[in-house]
Specification:
The protein folds into two domains: 5-121 and 245-326, FAD/NAD(P)-binding domain, CATH 3.50.50.60; 125-241, FAD/NAD(P)-binding domain (3-Layer(bba) Sandwich), CATH 3.50.50. A hairpin with a 2-residue loop joins strand 14 and strand 15. It has eight helices and 22 strands. Strands 1, 2, 5, 6, 7, 8 and 21 form a seven-stranded mixed beta sheet that branches. Strands 10-17-11-12-13 form a five-stranded parallel beta sheet, covered by helices on one side. Strands 14-15-16 form a three-stranded antiparallel beta sheet. The protein is an alpha/beta fold and 327 residues long. Bound molecules: flavin-adenine dinucleotide. Flavin-adenine dinucleotide binds next to helix 1, strand 2, helix 2 and helix 7.
Length: 327
């Protein structure tokens, strides 16, 4: 056990947690970041490193991995202790600090900031017996490197934002892109759907994937079916499935936090119902909540400033401008 008590332990090293680290450094707090994944960046690195993001202030267009690289650089300002591949399990209070237990050890901390996003997550599988032959080779549940699909025939499955975004990003990279969605209507943003419909992508709605055919991990073709049983065969080299994620906050659900399904309820100070434990980003819920990177980046400073004032009631809640720290 590392007996040093840090000011703030950030659970979750996604964009919200990373920006919180920077901010806590600016408030001269000692910081520890814990994440169960082997790398920082949360959903952006795990699910869509090569996707462009257009809705973060100051960046008209930025790749998810580049945004994370910037956030990691910024996070290091706090000189945080970073523990990867480690999952937060339980918490108890001991006087003026918490004893936080993970699957790897015990940590002492004055405050905790939960930026655990959707929790530990894994993609929802396609659900066909042959899927294991192709997984990680030509059947993908996320895109780590767009170059893999250069000049290939690609089929994207799903009707949400991820599926539509991927199809559109691959349009000019792949030889041919098809998109299969089991429903008639898409749940993706309507602007994206309009762009999709006027793109070169072959769109098949109200159809499901019946069989994947191929050998030695290489997909050759898929058979898709309509509700009336009509079948069609599409020749492909890669299949990208976007059926969402199965996620769970796991042990955090047993901490006694007020929850709304898989989200933690917070007030306008990003305080949870447990004094000294804050939450920000996708993991939170409150009236009017919107789950976006930009929102998490705004909630992080709110949480950190209140955590600072909690530890040191004489500290200013409203910080000085960042220029006064860096000049
Ligand atoms: C395909 C896709 C495209 C998207 N595109 C956009 C977009 O264009 N613009 C936009 O604003 N948003 C987009 N989003 C949503 C965006 O990714 C999220 O809003 C954002 O990642 C939330 O950041 P976060 O830091 O709050 O949580 P996350 O990114 O989910 O990070 C949480 C971290 O906490 C860790 N963690 C969880 N539980 C524990 C635990 N018990 N112990 C230790 N670590 C734990 C996880 O491993 C994870 O690394 C997209 C999402 C997807 C899936």
């Amino acid at each position: 056990m590392n007996n040093e008590i840090v000011d703030i332990t950030i659970i979750g090293g996604g964009p919200t947690g990373l920006f919180a680290s920077f901010y806590a450094g600016m408030r001269e707090m000692s910081v520890k970041i814990i994440d169960s994944l082997p790398q920082l960046g949360g959903q952006l690195i795990e699910l869509y490193p090569d996707k462009y993001i257009y809705d973060v202030g100051g960046f008209p267009k930025i790749l998810a991995k580049d945004l994370v690289a910037n956030l990691v650089t910024q996070a290091h300002y706090a000189k945080p202790e970073i523990l990867l591949g480690e999952t937060a399990m339980s918490v108890t209070r001991d006087g003026d600090h918490f004893i936080l237990k993970t699957d790897k050890g015990t940590h002492l901390t004055r405050t905790i900031l939960l930026t655990a996003g959707i929790g530990a997550f894994q993609p929802r599988k396609i659900g066909l017996p042959e899927e294991t032959h192709f997984e990680g080779k030509t059947l993908h549940y996320g895109i780590k490197d767009l170059n893999l699909f250069k000049d290939k025939n690609v089929l994207v499955c799903g009707g949400g934002d991820s599926a539509v975004d991927w199809a559109m990003m691959l349009e000019d990279i792949a030889a041919n892109v098809s998109l299969v969605h089991r429903r008639e209507r898409f749940t993706a943003h309507e602007t994206s759907v309009n762009q999709l419909m006027s793109s070169k992508v072959n769109v098949y709605t109200s159809r499901g994937i019946k069989t994947i055919l191929g050998e030695d991990g290489a997909v050759r073709e898929v058979i898709i079916t309509e509700k009336d049983g009509t079948e069609e065969t599409i020749a492909i080299d890669h299949l990208i499935v976007n059926y969402g994620n199965i996620s769970s906050l796991g042990a955090i659900k047993d901490w006694g936090l007020e929850m709304d399904r898989n989200s933690i309820l917070v007030n306008s100070r990003m305080e949870t119902n447990i004094e000294g434990i804050y939450a920000a980003g996708d993991v939170t819920n409150y009236d009017g909540k919107v789950k976006l990177i930009a929102v998490g980046l705004g909630e992080a400073p709110i949480a950190v400033n209140h955590a600072k004032a909690h530890i040191d009631p004489k500290a200013r809640l409203q910080p000085l401008h960042s220029t006064s720290v860096f000049n």
